[in-house]
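Submission sheet (multi-component)
Chains listed below:
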Amino acid sequence: MLDIDDQTKSAERILAFRDEQGDVAQDFVQAVADAIDAGDADRAQELVRPLHEADQGALIEALPADVRARLIELLGDVFDFAALTEVDDSVREELLEELPTETVIEGVKDLESDDAVYILEDLDKEDQDEILEGLPATERIALQKSLDYPEDSAGRLMQTELVAVPPFWTAGQTLDHLHATEDLPDSFFEIFVVDPGHRLLGQIFLDKLVRSPRIARVDTLMNTERRRVHATDDQEQVARVFERYNLVSAPVVDEAERLVGVITIDDVVDVIQEEADEDVKALGGVSSEEELSDRVATIARSRFVWLFVNLITAFIASAVLGLFEGQLQKMVALAVLAPIVASQGGNAATQTMTVAVRALAVRELGAGNALRVTLRESFVGLINGIGFGLLTGLVASIWFHDWNIGLVICIAMLVNLVAGALGGILIPLTLEKFGADPAVSSGVFVTTVTDVVGFFAFLGIATLWFGLS
Amino acid sequence: MLDIDDQTKSAERILAFRDEQGDVAQDFVQAVADAIDAGDADRAQELVRPLHEADQGALIEALPADVRARLIELLGDVFDFAALTEVDDSVREELLEELPTETVIEGVKDLESDDAVYILEDLDKEDQDEILEGLPATERIALQKSLDYPEDSAGRLMQTELVAVPPFWTAGQTLDHLHATEDLPDSFFEIFVVDPGHRLLGQIFLDKLVRSPRIARVDTLMNTERRRVHATDDQEQVARVFERYNLVSAPVVDEAERLVGVITIDDVVDVIQEEADEDVKALGGVSSEEELSDRVATIARSRFVWLFVNLITAFIASAVLGLFEGQLQKMVALAVLAPIVASQGGNAATQTMTVAVRALAVRELGAGNALRVTLRESFVGLINGIGFGLLTGLVASIWFHDWNIGLVICIAMLVNLVAGALGGILIPLTLEKFGADPAVSSGVFVTTVTDVVGFFAFLGIATLWFGLS
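Outcome: structure written.
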């Protein structure tokens, strides 16, 4: 089988799994589905073997839900359980429930500890224990320790496999150790230097190690300034440190500064992606848990909550309109134009809010510049308020042949855009100050402000100007 | 000066630069500002020397704009020009204009090629050439080659410093080469294997190299399956490959498969962050170019465009209201309630659109599942439409003591939520199909649909039901 064409064949297979756009190729999925139907393990293994774990994950997701577990059983050793870290949570949970415990234990055994933790952490305590018990003791203890750290902490993200050496070793000794030792992590970029109490002293990247004189002691080579993270740090904090200092990996220490693991950038990329996802979804009124593979009922329920809150605010805004029923009846043009004032204010406020929420999320906005940004936003609101006030006033005057109505809407628009700018920046800042997530909750408050202020300003000014009541 | 306390002192200084929240400490910034005012280069250097390039960048941003260039002059060698890759574009551009060309040339000389390209690429051709001419020939040629690749391409992102060896070398020979050669990249994780034509054959991570027998040939050790990217690939495509396959670095090849550079994950993290930023901002109606350090006039102008488009759609929606002026006058309750129908539809549609836009951005939504997701969203719209129709109908009936109005708003709400769901998914899909960025333009279309359908459904059904006209 291993002939000169083997590499080309495998390249062809990789190409065939994804089409030119990089999407999963439907005919490949069909071929796998056919093999599953036929119970043809050889064919399934032949198709899946060349696939990267990420592509195995993508394949699982592309298959109908009811054949996924059967594929994994057919594949045996060929299936890389790391693929399960690449699929949607709901897909993974369903699969883990369906698969026999022994299969899961066998699969988890081969994983790096961070991947194993990722798969285990969402299981309920009972299933978790059952799988842990099936694992070799050293692995079980390491995983249990990671799982004991809080959810979304550095301790959950780290892998416990690492290389640590004492400070009095030389570069040559360390290289010889790496050369001679069987039981090393699958891949690593650096070695750590620890004291007898396993406290972290410093770290040396492999490229530095191989370029150093063999007789140099590692404590003279090591970098002591590296950013370390604490096992209990939140993963967002960890991501911030990685991003800020362009790290590729970072040692994780416990409360006694003892080295307990290492976090690598690929896990952090997932966190960054997740965070961005949460921000986008929260601003759009969607739960961060929602996934493309969720069922209709799950989605409808989770979105209902946000829409319900919005309905209440919509009624509040309408109640303001209701206060002016008499005026609306006397001058129906007011009813026709009022939504324009509210909508324009809402959009301007959303712009400000978006900038504020994102800047807070990436920590670009803080006590140091909050005042400056608030002033700036107010000015932007004022300038655009004047611009759109005049524009809307002009169009409204022409439409209803009455410059009075143009004047009224012009002033109302100005007021609402300034109010929107202030709301758009102060509401996220206030929510952040009180520990709420501004991405999730700012939207409701902000549009309530612009709806209420918009209707109130427009109809209130109209009442005064036209002497309606 | 170099005593046992040195490390502690530098740790204290790092601590002092950021407060407990990780924000830049104001007193540190003040101390630097004082040193600049006094023209005290020693003090400025003492303060800034221990800072990481990223923190140097943060310091630059925290200082008033008019003293930044003076600080860089005072710092001389102590200032790391890589810090300029960490600041907002507008800050960097201003600084590069203010600084004498010689200072910039000296600073760029010490950078890795990817950082140098990042700094040079936004300058106008003339300034760029002036700086390039001041650089040593080899560096100039390498930078020029990178700059010749299109904007936002892999060729711009890559660094050209790398280690490549011929396939017939042994592991021992390679390690000896690394050990003996002075002129190596500042840091690297892997060595590449190339043929005499510099075509990429494979790659070996350093950890594998040090663990291999010294006599093994590198072409027996190398990994040939690694994902490579082409220099002309778009950076988003590159980011997608890194994310999908959890890469730490990837070789960059030209059209003849010759190795021309290497992209490391830290640059890709910036791309991922940028992309997420663009999505968030686009959905909020803010230009992706907008930065927190921009001036009021710049921001007001850039936001005006989006608000102007929104104003037009608001007038279109109001024109629909205008069609029913007579009915609104006869039944003012319709004017009070109409915005609720429009707003609820808008929010539901925004939820769907957010999910669709994000899924398109991360390539989770494609031809393979577009139909399924559209059907799912329609069902969600139907379910929530029934729920909110009944709820709103009930409240409206009680408010206006008329079950007829409740019935009308119930049906209108149902219609609008289904329309919103369809608009929320089909509009982004259509925009994507025609090559437009769905994040930027979906919002306007979607809310126009829900405003127009909301007003039309509610007032149209009311007209029929109550026999108004």
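Remark: DSSP finds 22 helices and six strands in chain A.
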